[in-house]
Amino acid sequence: MLEERLVVLGLEVKVVRKRIKNMYLRVRRTGEVEVSAAPRVERKMIESFIVSKWSWVQAKRNQALLSLEKQLQADEIFYFGQRVTIKRHPAKKISVERGEETLHFFGPSTYDDERVVLWIKNWMFCELQQKIEQLVNAYWPYFHGKGCAPVEIKYRQMTATWGVCRPQRGTITFNKNLIHQPDAFIEYVVVHELSHLVEANHSARFYQVVELLLPEWKMYDKQKISF
């Protein structure tokens, strides 16, 4: 089974090549769009197939975003790929602490659920920023050696892709929803986007760079959780 990526109407789509007769289109709970097609099917045909289903794709992606938001309204959420329980504790000073399978929120008992969720989301976002910063710094020597200029790291809530690299602008934008994914998948996404600094498209040369930096990238990619 082979995998590749293509961009349709600004949306990054995962293409899985299989020995099948028909094409199949699905939208994962993360908002990722995936198409299964036979190896002989041309990319233009796949693009046309996606465009013909565009209204359906957009509707499913919107549902996926709402589903992810609702996770934070429940007592259980995914934090770096692990299902954890949110527990509230009365306290004057507001803070969030991580247990083995629990996120502990300390704060006024007068805080409603919406306010608690906001604090936890902000705390989780800071944790994600720290992790991605560490990963970018760890892999940066390779790109520095290639003459790449430093990039600005941004974050945004996205349903179509996990990251967007714009070499000409010197920016890489990561999806805030990565906080729900395992460490291995986050590392793959960081390597994937950084690799676009030397190879802009998803060519064979691009995946050579990815594999050089992360030989087990395919296994890391498969660690992704579909909600």
From TrEMBL:
Keyword Methyltransferase listed: no
Keyword Lipid biosynthesis: no
Keywords: Hydrolase, Protease
GO MF term (any one): peptidase activity
CDD domains for the chain: M48_yhfN_like
InterPro entries per record: UTP_pyrophosphatase-like, YgjP-like_metallopeptidase
Domain YgjP-like metallopeptidase per the UniProt entry, residue ranges: 21-222
Gene Ontology terms describing biological process: proteolysis
Listed name of the protein: Zinc protease
Organism: Turicibacter faecis
Lineage: Bacteria, Bacillati, Bacillota, Erysipelotrichia, Erysipelotrichales
